[in-house]
Amino acid sequence: MIIGKKTYSVLISLAVLAVLFVTIGFVEKREVGYRIDDISVEIENRFENFFVDERDVLALIMENEGDSILGDHFGRVNLKEIEQRIESHSFVKDAEVYRDLKGHLVVKAYQSKPIARLVANNGKHAYISEEGNVLPVSSKYTARVVVLTGEYMNKMTKAESIEEEEYYQALYDLVNHVNADRFWKMQIAEINVDKKGKIVMYAQVGKQRLELGRAENIADKFKRLKIFFKEIMPTKGWNAYDRVNVEFKDQIICE
Q1: Roughly what angle, to the nearest 10 degrees, separates helices 54-62 and 79-87?
Q2: Quick one: angle between helices 218-227 and 166-180, nearest 10?
Q3: Are residues 233 and 153 in the same domain?
């Protein structure tokens, strides 16, 4: 019997589909058959932050899973859900969960980087992260970052993100300006913000009040402050002035 070309093509297609179904079924069965025999936790720490440790991550993995997921079939474990649990930690900005070739559950957690610490008059503390989120403090570790104090922090420490108010973004930009400049990062110890948003900074060395006004025209104000530190202070002495004001355009007021 001679098989036509059309019939032959149909038979070939059916054979390919059959092979695919068998292969998929085999992979699914094999995936379900693998059991979790170990959990490997890797915490990315290039910023030398220690807000999250292996115990914290394991506690989040075991949440709602009883005492352990060790011994469970991989095919029955929702890896995406585990990622979401780990990312629910305040200091975890991203997480990856997958199975390696040895049958281990591999967890990679990436920590948030604090760029400033908020200290409110009412005693509440918080951090601003690199992404602009407001994070709680931790009993495990204290980051060495610039400190924001003053009455305005009573409000800002209650926020979840700098996106909630325009002036939060302005203060975030101010902190980034300080951190981006090696000179200012070494000089500025504290940034005080009053209830109207006016800023007074205090340096690591010297007793001067560095008055900026509100967080506006930051680059120009810091340019004038640098003139004070590099040209005026060396000739007059570190403690010759108690107050330096650059709030107003094109002025450096020293008292």
Answers
A1: 130
A2: 40
A3: yes
pLDDT band of 9, cuts 50, 70, 90: low
Q: What is the mean pLDDT of residues 169-177?
A: 97
Residues 71 and 195 in one domain: no
User: How confident is the model over 153-179, as a mean pLDDT?
Assistant: 95
Residue with tokens 């390919």: 16
Exposed/middle/buried for residue 226 (C-beta within 10 Å: 0-12, 13-18, 19+): middle
CA 86 to each of CA 153, 221, 230: distance values in angstroms, whole numbers, following the listed order: 29, 42, 47
Beta-sheet strand order (sheet of 134-136): 134-136, 125-129, 114-119, 146-149, 188-193, 199-203, 209-213, 243-245, 253-254
State what percent of residues in the chain have pLDDT above 90.
Answer: 44
Query: Structural domain of residue 66, as residue ranges?
Result: 39-111
CATH number at residue 75: 3.10.20.310
Helix ranges (DSSP H) in 128-195: 153-156, 166-180, 182-187
Kindly state the average pLDDT of the residues 145-161: 95
Spell 81-106 as b/e; 16+ CB within 10 A means b: ebbebbeebbbbbebebeeeeeeebe
Give buried/exposed letters for 155-181 (b at 16+ CB in 10 A, else e): ebbebeebeeeebbebbbebbbbbbee
pLDDT tens track for 182-241 = 999 998 999 999 999 999 999 887 777 899 999 999 999 999 999 888 888 777 766 778
Contact 247, 212 (CB under 8 A): yes
